[in-house]
Amino acid sequence: MESPSRDRITRTTKYPHSSFFLLSFIVLLSGTIPVTVVSLGINYGQIANNLPTPDKVVPLVKAIGATKVKLYDADPKVLKAFAKTGIEFTVTIGNDQLPQLAKNPKLALDWVKKNVQIYLPYTNITCILIGNEVLTFNDTTLTSSLYPAMQNMHSALQTLSLDRNVWVTTAHNLAILDTSYPPSAGSFRSDLGSCISQILSFHAKTGSPFLINAYPYFAYKGSPEEVNLDYVLFQAKTAQVLVDPDSSLHYDNMLYAQVDAVYSAMGPNFNKKVLVQVSETGWPSKGDQDEVGATPENAKKYNGNLIKMLATQKKGTPMKPDCDLNVFVFALFNENLKPGPTSERNYGLFKPDGTPAYSLGIPSIQAVSNGTSGDDGVDGKISFSRLLGHFTGYDCYAGSSLE
Fold first, then answer.
1. CB 36, CB 326: distance < 8 Å
2. Which of the following is catalytic: 2, 88, 133, 344?
3. Which of 44, 92, 127, 287 has a 20 to 30 A CA-CA distance from 69?
């Protein structure tokens, strides 16, 4: 189940680094643009009573060029609607199911048969998330259930000969970090050390990624007088670039600093074997009076600059320049039933009627929302899908032992 609110993210770090689809980027080109090997995805949340049916969502996802979709459940209507589209799907097991999954391997096997196997190969399900932000609920039952539930799910995939095609992982709130500044000093919370070590060993053995939900917006919202907005929105000037005093690496945006803080926290035993991916990031287009920075302009800048950076730069983060960063933006739609502050209901790139939540400028998107067919290359604009290659795996770790 989709977490009802991200505003509970706490910042327990020395610096406010704790706490895609990257739609709002308008490609206005007169020449050509280098194509990098990246994959961008969209979080498809459904805490709303006014969303279009899944069959009507398919053209929207295609219009933005997304190659991956992440669900907060395993909604059969969505999985059936996206059959034969080639789009990769991540499905999620709700936190409430973890204790039973941890105890009952047969339950894991039955879940895979019901929610994954029957849709293959027509719906391209490639990942199963075991819960969402489990470790930061500070619930001992959930925490102790996470690793065995992941093991049982992977064993179920092995039994069905699906483990080579479907990953098992979980998504973490950045509040699992005790320290995130500077990035080279990143460390996990000591009370979570044993559990995270088990999970990292699981990732290293199975080749699955370590997922983080990273929201620089929360750092800015929490300390707007201390956090530079340009640095958060991927448009830092030279004087605003962060230089890590220990590694001497230069950071011109907060998201990359957050990712590298996680790599540092992993330590040398794991950060050469396990890839960090961003399972959620985004920016709200509307907020309450005290939600500083939640505007359409900033949402457009955050998502637009991120997509531009990922699409044009053939590099990863400063600490892992050879590893392409795989990112999912939150979220596809504004969700009117989400509790919490106004921002929680305004992360969407689209309104429920299929029109952009703010100016997006991509011809194919506008064409779909207008009920017409979109064409690439109209008026010098190149649609998103023309920009992007496809993330193919852990090329940056070629030759590294996963044992």
1. no
2. 133
3. 287
* pLDDT score, position 2: 62
* C-alpha distances out from residue 373 to 65, 305, 364, 381, Å: 14, 26, 7, 15
Q: What is the DSSP letter of 262?
A: H
Active-site residue identified among 2, 88, 280, 344: 280
Are 334 and 350 in contact by the 8 Å Cβ rule? The answer is yes
Lowest mean pLDDT among 62-71, 119-128, 245-254: 62-71
Q: Phi, psi (5° rounding) for residue 204?
A: -65, -35
In which residue are the tokens 């990953």 written? 167
Locate 335 and state its tokens: 């969700």
Known catalytic residue: 133?
yes
Q: Please state the pTM of the whole predicted model.
A: 0.85
Query: 3-state DSSP helix/strand/coil percent for the chain, to nearest 5?
Result: 35, 15, 50
Label residue 399 left, alpha or beta by phi (over 0 means left) and psi (-120 to 50 means alpha).
Answer: left
CATH class of 40-360: alpha beta
Q: State the chain's mean pLDDT as an integer.
A: 84
What does the DSSP 8-state code read for residue 230?
H
Choose among 86, 260, 101: nearest CA to 184: 260
CA distance 5 to 345: 9
In the chain, what is the straight-line distance between the N-terminal and C-terminal CA atoms, in Å?
Answer: 32
H-type alpha helices, 135-215: 140-159, 193-206
Domain positions in the chain are: 40-360
pLDDT > 60? residue 400: no
